[in-house]
Amino acid sequence: MDIKDLNKSQLILLAILVSFVVSIATGITTVTLMQQAPPPVTQTINRVVQKTIETVIPDTTQKVQTIIIKEEDLVVDAIEKNSRALVLVKGAPTEEDKDGPTLGRGFLVSATGLVLMDGRIISGDGKYSASYNNVTYEAEFLGKDKNGLALMKLILPKDSKIKSFEFTAFSDSDKARAGQSVIALGGVGLDIARGTILGFGEESLVEAPPVAEGDQPAGGLPVLEKIKTLNTNLTLSRSYSGTPVVDLDGSVLGFVLIRDSKTIIIPVNFLRSFIDNTQIKG
């Protein structure tokens, strides 16, 4: 049969057959030559083939980088973040102390200068100041409650270079869990204590009225109101009263009050309503 007598379909099949035979012959020839070629030549050819495959089919797998964060680094960051929110509260100047006597610590809870502190160290009357970031500001007393919480506000002078104060955000204390690490910051300088949450408890911070012997009211002594507290293994000194307890994220979990050498930590969720109500009254 003459090739001129083939139709289009037959010509295509013939071309495919020829191409197939040529490919097989080329492969056999290539393998034979590769086996006979010296090693340097085969290594060069293999590298060219590998690069060609990488170009045609790129590697789409993504490398996952694992970052290990040490607890020590979290502690350092939490301390640095919260130490700037601590203030040192002072009373009115005296002849002996022109800067005013140091009363205790408090900490900023808003950018507007609200300071939460232990209400036992101030009477509510008189003149107060507070040292923040090595600058002394006039402090206005706003109020305190029966549990011993007090709220003050730092007054920015008109020529102040800053327009707001650094403060630390509150966490959700209801989500605190036993075994969680916490940090307490306090002292006239800056003292640090690390501890662990043990759970929740209840304490009465309201002092019972004195009752003379033999003058007990009918029905017995009144039942004192108790509030929720955060139990930890922290045993803190008096200098920590009025300071925060924070988690490893640097958020405030609780507020320290020292009563009769006992460490009491009030969860921040209880503090929110006190702060809101007191600043409105103030």
UniProtKB/TrEMBL annotation:
Pfam families: Trypsin_2. InterPro entries: Peptidase_S1_PA. It comes from the Bacteria. PANTHER family: PROTEASE DO-LIKE 5, CHLOROPLASTIC (PTHR43019:SF23), SERINE ENDOPROTEASE DEGS (PTHR43019). This is Serine protease.
